[in-house]
Design goal:
Protein name: HD domain-containing protein
Low-confidence stretches: none
Distance between the termini: 32 Å
Largest sheet: 5 strands, mixed, barrel
GO molecular function: hydrolase activity; nucleic acid binding
Organism: candidate division WWE3 bacterium RIFCSPLOWO2_01_FULL_39_13
Number of domains: 2
Number of strands: 7
Order of helices and strands: EEEEEHHHHHHEEHHHHH
Strand order of the largest sheet: 1-2-3-5-4
Helix content: 40-55%
Shape: elongated
InterPro entries: HD/PDEase_dom, HD_domain, NA-bd_OB-fold, NA-bd_OB_tRNA, YhaM_exoribonuc/phosphodiest
Pfam family, one: tRNA_anti-codon
């Protein structure tokens, strides 16, 4: 089934007839008078939209639907709290749609980003860190997941290839620090950068056509999962120095920069401080850029308020430039 309507193009009062979307959230709720209805979130490559199936339309919806299913939905778009909402009147699972057609994908060249990381791995001089990287990267399963997995479920780089893109951006952003400040340990820093979000390969999964958080991801979290993985790998490397292990672990557990953002400790080495800087830079820039791209169609000078970055962004020049080109 070919898509004819994208979420980014939906407008208030628009009728939707048998259009394909990904079922990203699906919850049964009870109204004040005790009637059941569904809360939904539907998605495609261009974004997400919240939706509802009211009580009178429940019988028009196929039973047994699950997160990640690609469904055919009919209904109409209405405005609610200033945002579009999809009132679904019927939906059923599709069996002739390819999941990859509904997942957002990095716009950067994954082959180029992967090659840049591989080039840096070959330059690592510390024999223990080189063994650690060589124990992980040549494994085809590890390399495939690292290249194709998202870096998040919602917040930043939440798309196919997102983890690779986030890591590559951090690599590029970190280079000036090592040009300006002498005496920093690039071998240690790069290894920490490479592995800083490795736990996200266990925290998230791609189910059908949806990015979901796994049960271990919810219970343990990616920082702890990353430390467990590295500990297991280090145990297989004879005589791996304890002090080197501790400094590498510190990079991983402090990379989110502060306790309020989920790091058990704050950065206490220069390398850890830089890692937290570039991690934040990459995440914030990605959120801002995607937020502006999402808001350009409104024609407004400023975007809607971004709840994570706590501001609106000026986009007037981009709107004006687009009009000039047209």
């Amino acid at each position: 089934m070919n898509k004819t309507v994208s979420i980014a193009d939906l407008k208030t009062d628009q009728k939707i007839a048998g259009e394909a979307f990904v079922l990203k959230e699906f919850e049964t709720k009870q109204s004040r008078v005790g009637k059941s209805y569904y809360n939904l979130k539907l998605g495609d490559k261009t974004g997400d939209i919240l939706g509802k199936v009211w009580t009178e339309n429940l019988s028009n919806c196929e039973r047994g639907l699950a997160i990640g299913d690609i469904i055919s939905a009919s209904g109409y778009i209405q405005e609610y709290a200033g945002k579009p909402q999809f009132i679904v009147e019927s939906m059923k699972k599709l069996i002739d749609a390819a999941p990859e057609e509904f997942l957002p994908v990095t716009s950067r060249d994954r082959s180029r980003m992967k090659q840049d990381l591989e080039d840096e791995i070959t330059k690592i001089k510390n024999p223990y860190l080189k063994k650690l990287l060589d124990a992980y990267w040549p494994n085809p399963d590890n390399r495939d997941k690292f290249t194709n997995f998202p870096a998040a479920e919602y917040v930043h780089h939440a798309y196919v290839g997102g983890l690779l893109e986030h890591t590559w951006e951090m690599l590029k952003l970190s280079k000036p620090f090592f040009e300006i400040y002498p005496g920093l340990d690039w071998n240690l820093f790069f290894t920490g950068l490479f592995f800083h979000d490795i736990g996200k390969l266990e925290e998230y999964d791609i189910v059908g056509a949806a990015i979901v958080r796994t049960t271990p991801g919810k219970l343990v979290g990616h920082i702890t999962q990353g430390i467990v993985l590295l500990h297991e790998m280090i145990e297989e490397i004879p005589d791996f120095p304890k002090s080197l292990r501790d400094k590498l672990f510190h990079l991983i557990i402090s990379h989110q920069g502060s306790l309020e953002y989920g790091s058990p400790v704050v950065p206490m080495t220069l390398e850890a401080l830089i890692l937290s800087f570039v991690d934040t830079n990459s995440a914030d820039m990605n959120q801002a850029i995607k937020h502006i791209e999402k808001g350009l169609h409104t024609g407004e000078e400023f975007t809607e308020y971004h709840k994570w970055l706590k501001r609106s962004f000026y986009q007037g020049d981009l709107i004006n430039h687009s009009s000039d080109v047209d």
